[in-house]
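Figure 3 (text version): structure tokens given as input.
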């Protein structure tokens, strides 16, 4: 069955949106001839012009259903579309746009911002203000009727429910998507070029070349609109997740291994090692030069340098215990203790009105700001933190002890990086 390729349904009346009378239909049964018998006297249907679009996008990953994003389509009204002249470019508000170029296209949010006097001076927010598209073809009947056939680029947040990513169903942004990442698609539409707001710069990012993602939008994955399928992304690290373009990958220095590892996974491994050694109450006792440095710091704290001695001044003592005066102490003691007998009776109805259940304790949803699920996966949360130090040789993870109840020992130290695959120290 033919499928509509409209990205967003247009309302019947759009006062602020540039009008476009054309619709695109994907043709999935092009090779099947219509063999239905016509009754005598029936006029044959006018032939429908079917076009083929070769996709300009060639992702590194693969699709399960179709090998490419190529598709067949038709445009209605067909005759009016065919009558128009094809152009290589168009000029709008002094800017020239070419076929095969990327553009920003206004949506409802950008229209509202443009109409808001306070919003005109505010900076543009990419996900709310524009869609991004690639121009496939430009046609016009005159300077007032210029249209572009486009492929939409998706922000990851726009991935619809039911999208397949490998063996699972997903919706919206995934953990491996970068802040400036787009997803190429074969989602076709025809727009009035008056909706174009600016030229967009979009690079194809091949994961071996990180330079492509520094100063522009980029895409590495593609979305097949016909069956809501994402192209595959190469997994890395022990966790099996793809590379995150905004984060660091660290390569194993063992030539027989050579695997790439996420910085977050390496930090997690170092924190787990620290937690398993020290637990909740054991201080970190360094050895070697680190231990001597810690001892020197401790001696300095115990014996701070004294001011020069002065004539007639008594010898300075190390410390003095400070006690509150009697009046303050009496005021504190005057506060009565809460007793069960003095507590007024509270009915079950009053308790229920406050949202509590009589006879039951409130179940804590989080401890120290972390849920039980988070603590189970990362038991060190709230006790240790870590950061990757790539400028060290070899690179290390700096651990900071956050446990306030633990006395003595060092409060920060470094842990070596170890490959999560072969367990070799990373140099």
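Below: residues designed for each position.
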């Amino acid at each position: 069955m033919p499928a509509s390729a409209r990205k967003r349904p247009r309302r019947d009346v759009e006062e602020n949106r540039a009008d476009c009378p054309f619709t695109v239909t994907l043709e999935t049964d092009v090779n099947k001839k219509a063999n239905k018998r016509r009754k005598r006297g029936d006029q044959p249907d006018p032939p429908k012009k079917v076009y083929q679009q070769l996709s300009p996008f060639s992702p590194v990953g693969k699709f399960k259903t179709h090998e490419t994003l190529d598709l067949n389509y038709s445009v209605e009204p067909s005759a009016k579309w065919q009558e128009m002249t094809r152009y290589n470019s168009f000029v709008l508000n002094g800017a020239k746009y070419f076929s095969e170029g990327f553009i920003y296209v206004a949506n409802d949010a950008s229209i509202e911002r443009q109409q808001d006097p306070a919003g005109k001076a505010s900076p543009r927010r990419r996900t709310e203000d524009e869609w991004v598209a690639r121009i496939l073809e430009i046609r016009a009947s005159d300077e007032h009727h210029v249209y572009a056939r486009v492929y939409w680029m998706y922000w990851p947040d726009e991935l619809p429910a039911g999208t397949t990513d490998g063996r699972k169903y997903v919706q919206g942004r995934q953990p491996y998507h970068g802040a400036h990442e787009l997803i190429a698609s074969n989602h076709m539409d025809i727009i009035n070029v008056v909706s174009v707001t600016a030229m967009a710069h979009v690079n194809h990012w091949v994961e071996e070349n990180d330079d492509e993602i520094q100063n522009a939008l980029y895409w590495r994955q593609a979305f097949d609109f016909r069956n809501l399928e994402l192209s595959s992304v190469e997994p890395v690290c022990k966790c099996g997740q793809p590379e995150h373009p905004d984060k660091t990958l660290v390569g194993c220095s063992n030539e027989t291994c050579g695997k790439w590892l996420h910085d977050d996974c390496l930090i997690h491994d170092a924190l787990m090692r620290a937690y398993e050694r020290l637990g909740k109450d054991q201080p970190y006792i360094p050895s070697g030069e680190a231990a001597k440095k810690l001892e020197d710091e401790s001696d300095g704290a115990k014996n701070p340098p004294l001011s020069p001695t002065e004539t007639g001044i008594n010898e300075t003592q190390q410390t003095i215990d400070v006690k509150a005066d009697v009046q303050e102490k009496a005021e504190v003691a005057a506060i009565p203790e809460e007793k069960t007998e003095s507590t007024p009776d509270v009915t079950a109805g009053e308790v229920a009105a406050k949202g509590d259940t009589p006879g039951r304790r409130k179940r804590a949803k989080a401890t120290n700001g972390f849920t039980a699920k988070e603590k189970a996966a990362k038991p060190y949360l709230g006790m240790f933190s870590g950061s990757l130090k790539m400028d060290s040789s070899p690179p290390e993870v700096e651990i900071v002890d956050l446990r306030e109840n633990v006395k003595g020992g060092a409060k920060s130290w470094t842990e070596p990086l170890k490959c999560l695959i072969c367990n070799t120290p990373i140099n």
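Residues 8-16, 117-127, 316-364 have pLDDT under 50 and may be disordered.
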